[in-house]
Design goal:
This protein is of the alpha/beta class. The longest helix is centred in the first third of the chain and has 22 residues. It is built from eleven helices and twelve strands. α4 links the parallel β3 and β4.
Length: about 325
């Protein structure tokens, strides 16, 4: 009897051991560290197609994106479009082939993006527009826009001008250095400025031409303006680099920028603030290039499938000449 009891006990222990072994089976593995996408816990890969390196503003913008990606632990695939739309389209298609999680880009011009953006949408890759918008009827082709209100910037420039000449009889002859033809900032800064000065007939834009956002082209076009126009009161430049190039042309012509010809510019790079402290630029309307941290935050959200606002604007100011010296030390681009 005792022997039978011992055998039963042994059998019970063996069953118990087997059951215990089943219950301690290794758990199913979690998401792979190589998994992509914001919801998986893996590294997010962002493909970023930059316009180029045409200005100090753009260089600062690129640096902001690169540093923010590194800080956020987001893998960045970067492409310099060299101010050509075909280069940016090629880069976006490469990002699609590489199956990145998110695509962001600053479009060199507004139109002509629907086809490639539809390719990204069909591939299930969300798109973020940075700094510049696109002209499309299908707003489902991108998730959000991050950047400035260029119309407001142009309007701010015009409002400063109307205030500065409020007690003048006129006429006030203005030459305009436009940005890259067809680009959102060129179109919108022109429209906003024109709207702000339209009510007062003494303001006349006597010449307007693209300087392609570069310092060299700004100087070249300003030289042409000085030769073709008998009298110029004001220069309105769509960015600081063109304004700084134009200032060289004004000085070489024997005139004094900021005095003989008032200079209005947009962006807010450090070189422009230095020029203001020297009396060569009268006012700068700020356009903030430091979009990196906001872009990485939006990238994480859209990669995770979270909803985001259709438009995220940056906070910016207007800096007349008398505020330049105080603001200069804080300019980090």
């Amino acid at each position: 009897m005792a022997r039978r009891a011992a055998l039963v006990l042994t059998a019970a222990l063996l069953v118990s051991s087997a059951l215990t072994a089943c219950s301690t089976k290794s758990p199913a593995p979690g998401p792979s560290s190589e998994a992509k996408g914001g919801g998986s816990g893996g590294t997010i890969t962002l493909g970023f197609a930059q316009v180029g390196a045409e200005s100090g503003w753009r260089t600062a913008n690129t640096k902001s994106v690169q540093e923010a990606a590194k800080k956020a632990g987001i893998t960045l695939k970067f492409s310099d479009g060299q101010q050509k739309q075909e280069n940016q389209i090629k880069a976006i298609r490469t990002f699609i082939q590489q199956k990145v999680d998110v695509i962001a880009f600053s479009p060199v011009v507004e139109s002509g993006w629907d086809t490639v953006l539809k390719e990204a949408k069909d591939a299930g890759i969300p798109v973020i527009l940075t700094d510049r918008a696109v002209d499309t009827k299908d707003t489902s082709l991108y998730k959000t826009f991050l950047g400035s209100d260029f119309v407001k910037e142009g309007k701010s420039a015009g409002e400063w001008l109307t205030g500065a000449y409020a007690n003048e009889q006129g006429p006030v002859n203005i030459v305009e250095l436009q940005g890259t033809t067809g680009s959102a900032p060129a179109n919108d800064r022109k429209a906003g400025f024109a709207d702000a000065i339209r009510a007062d007939g003494k303001f006349k834009i006597v010449a307007s031409q693209s300087g392609d956002f570069t310092r060299a082209k700004g100087k070249e076009v300003m030289q042409a303006f000085l030769k073709s126009q008998n009298h110029i009161d004001v220069l309105y430049a769509h960015n600081d680099d063109m304004a700084l190039g134009a200032i060289q042309a004004i000085e070489e012509s024997g005139k004094k920028p900021g005095t003989d010809i008032k200079v209005i510019s947009v962006d807010g790079i450090k070189d422009a603030f230095v020029a203001m402290t020297e009396g060569k630029i009268n006012v700068v309307v700020e356009c903030n290039p430091m979009l990196g941290d906001q872009l990485m935050e939006l990238t994480r959200k859209v990669a995770a499938g979270e909803s985001v606002p259709a438009r995220v604007e940056t906070v910016e100011g207007v800096f007349p000449q008398d505020k330049a010296a105080a603001a200069l030390p804080s300019r980090n681009y």
